Amino acid sequence: MKPKTILLVEDNPSDIDLTKRALEKGHVLNELVVAEDGQEALEYIFATGIHAGRDATHMPALILLDLKLPRVNGLEVLRQIRSDPRTKRLPVVILTSSSEEHDVITSYDLCANSYIRKPVDFLQFVEAVQNLGMYWLVLNEPPPEVRH
Fold first, then answer.
1. What's this model's pTM, rounded to 2 decimal places?
2. Cα–Cα distance for residue pair 133/50, rounded to 1 Å
3. Shortest CA distance to 106 belongs to which of 136, 64, 67?
4. Mean pLDDT calculated for residue range 17-38
5. Higher per-residue pLDDT: 121 or 98
6. What does the pLDDT read at residue 138?
7. Which helix (H) or strand (E) holds 142?
8. I want to staple 74 with a disulfide (CB 3.0 to 4.6 A). Which of 17, 67, 94, 98 is the partner?
9. What is the rounded distance in angstroms from the CA atom of residue 112 to the CA atom of residue 142?
10. What are the C-alpha distances in Å from 47 to residues 25, 53, 97, 135?
11. Other residues' Cβ atoms within 10 Å of the Cβ of residue 29
12. Cβ-count burial 58-97 (b if 16+ within 10 Å, e if not)
């Protein structure tokens, strides 16, 4: 059985570091792959571009997706994930500082599994990440893999 990978799509180095520290502190030991913009995230997910050699059958168990990203924004990343039969069921949690109602509505319209505003306080952030890890990587029953 392959290890469950978390794909963190985040362009802010401080938030990347904070998320890594929160996962460690929460004893979430899964492999963490970081994509620093939306284009890199799509290349990782679909094993193209800089990730062309990656095993495309090994999908992340969880995608933590920021919305405000360079090159391809988070909503477009989510749109492309949901439009492909291989990835449409991947758990995608929006983890963003955006509190714009439009972003929340559009995220859910595009079938995000959850929308979480990044807490400013580190301890709250650790708790949020621990809960995400526990729920999505341990408790949640994922759908069967799409076979081609």
1. 0.89
2. 27
3. 67
4. 88
5. 98
6. 76
7. none
8. 67
9. 15
10. 30, 7, 28, 27
11. 12
12. ebbbbbbbbbbbeebbbbbbbebbbeeebbebbbbbbbbe
Place of tokens 């963490």: 32
Instruction: Please work out, in degrees rounded to the nearest 5, the angle formed at the alpha carbon of residue 42 by the alpha carbons of 99 and 95.
Output: 25
Q: Position 110: which residue type? A: L
Q: Which residue is listed with tokens 């109602």?
A: 101
Domain positions in the chain? 5-139
Per-residue model confidence (pLDDT) at position 148: 46
Q: What is the pLDDT of residues 39-96, one digit of tens each?
A: 999 999 999 999 999 998 899 999 999 999 999 999 999 999 999 999 999 999 999 8
Q: Which residues contact 101 (CB under 8 A, 6 or more apart)?
A: none
Instruction: Give the whole-angstrom CA distance, residue 19 versus residue 121.
Output: 12
Per-residue pLDDT, 129: 79
CATH code at 5-139? 3.40.50.2300
In this structure, the dihedral spanned by the alpha carbons of residues 20, 59, 41 and 116, taken in order and rounded to 10 degrees, is -60
Q: Is 71 left (phi over 0), alpha (psi -120 to 50) or beta?
A: left
